Structure formats: structure tokens, C-alpha cells
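2024-03-11 09:14:02 DEBUG pipeline.ingest accepted 1 chain
2024-03-11 09:14:02 DEBUG pipeline.ingest length=138
2024-03-11 09:14:03 DEBUG pipeline.predict start
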Amino acid sequence: MKQFIVFILISVFLTACSFGTAPRPTKRINFECAETRVNASFDYHDLAKKYYRSFYKTRKENELFYAWYASEDSIYMARSVKSCYDKKNKHFHAIRNLFQKNLTLQRLIAQNMRQESQAEISELYLEEYRKIFVRDIQ
């Protein structure tokens, strides 16, 4: 009986050891950190331009806010490239280009946003304002 128990304990121990040595799945490392972030930043900038063009068609102010936030996301993704280990000179130049483009786009967006005085006028004379600018207030 003792030999049988010892045999079972040894077999349980060996099976437990074999489960412990099984290969574990490793985390996949992204070897193109800087490239993917620069591409994502360009995609966000294109999205911001799309919302800005859409503002001129629809005259909805929320399109300007979407454009602004997409531009901010583009800047954030461009800044996050500096934490990548595989950055190169071409990434530096692309990021500098993106910063200039987004700065220009944000200036255009800010020029088209309503000023505080315009919002007060539209609150006071909402009916007259709506007759003049039909598509502006939705």
C-alpha cells in the first residue's frame, strides 16, 4: 500500500512539474513604435481637416469642436513618439511638419468659432438671428 501511495505522489509531482515548464505565451513587441504613431498622428490630422471642411458645408459649430479635438489628438500622438526607442531623423521631421500643420489648422478653427459677444447677441435676438442664419443654429 505504501508503495502505491509513493507511486501516485511521484506521478502527481512529475505531472505538476511538466505543467510548470510548459512554454508561456510572450507579449508581442511592436518593433515599429515610432512609425505607427506618426501614421496615427497623420490620420488624426486628416480627420481634423475633414471635420473642418464639413463645417463649411453644414455650418454646424460642433464640427469645429470635432476638428479641434482631432487636431489635439494628432499633436498628442506626435509627442508620444519621443518615448519610442526606434525614432529616427525622418520621424523628427515628420513630427515638426505635423506640429506646424496642426498649429495652422487650430488657428483657422479658432477664427471660425463664435466669440462670446456673438453668443450673447444670438441669445438676445435668437429669432432674428435664426431668420438670417438659417443653417447656423441647428
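2024-03-11 09:14:41 DEBUG pipeline.report The first helix runs from residue 2 to 20.
2024-03-11 09:14:41 DEBUG pipeline.predict end
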